[in-house]
Structures are given as structure tokens and as C-alpha cells.
Amino acid sequence: MSRQRGFSLLEILVAFAILSISLGVLLQVFATGLRNAGTAADYTQATLYAESILAAIGREAPLSEGSHSGSIDEQFSWRSRISPYLDGMPDPEKIRVRAYRVEVEVFWNGVLKTRSVVLETLRLAPLPPPQGPA
After folding, report:
1. Is the pTM of this model over 0.85?
2. What is the DSSP letter of 58?
3. Residue 16: band (very low, low, confident or very high) from pLDDT cuts 50, 70, 90
4. CA angle 129, 133, 134 (to 5 degrees)
5. Rounded Cα distance, 76 and 62, in Å
6. Strand partners, 117
7. Torsions phi, psi of 56, nearest 5?
8. Are strands 66-71 and 97-109 parallel, antiparallel or unpaired?
9. What does the alpha-carbon distance between residue 35 and residue 33 come to, in Å, rounded to a whole number?
10. Neighbouring C-alpha atoms within 13 Å toward the C-beta of 96
11. For residue range 27-77, what is the model confidence (pLDDT) as tens digits?
């Protein structure tokens, strides 16, 4: 009788174990990539919202000291802080403008924690004309 040569049961079990571990690792890599792509998309959307809100302050919304906040949609919310900027600025009465530091933060609940994007800029606003004696 000729002896047939094939794989033993132990060799087949080891091969299946190696295959299942490899597939598990590959699925984890793909899942991580998809999660990172979703997070990157959220950051991009939040940055666009922050830029839009920052552009509106002083043009569509008044440039006045204080804080404002609101909701954009069911996922994103925002808050802004406007404060005087005095570092290295000349006397506002001499140049007839006042500098403001404008900060906009857009935040949302991520997978594991609250995430946010913060943008800042400086804006100049003219002072009202001086009132002369009547």
C-alpha cells in the first residue's frame, strides 16, 4: 500500500489560528482607519464653522466685548469671546481705533471625549467720534 501524504490535524489547526489572528489584526487596522477618517472629517467641518463665525463677527454681528454662544446643528456648538487687546498697542484715543482679541471655539462630542477647534484673531474697530462742546 502506498502511503498518502497530507496535512495533519494539528497543522490545519495551527494554520487556522494564524489566519484568524491575521484577519483580526487587519480588521482592527481598517476600523482604526475609518474612525480616524471620521474624526478628521469632524475637525474639518468644525474648522469651517469656526472660520465662518469668526468672519461674521464685526461684520454681521457686532464687535462688542463679551461672550456669545449657540448651537450650529445637533452635533456642533460654538462660543466666542471678545476682549480688548492692549499688548503693545498705542493709545486708542490717538489712533482712533481699538483692538479686540476675538476667539471662536467650536466643540462637539467625539467618540471618547469632547473635542474642539479654537481660532483666534485680532480685529480693529473705529472709536466713535469725540463729542465736542455744545
Report:
1. no
2. T
3. very high
4. 105
5. 22
6. 106
7. -75, -25
8. unpaired
9. 5
10. 3
11. 999 999 998 998 999 999 999 999 999 999 988 877 889 999 999 999 999
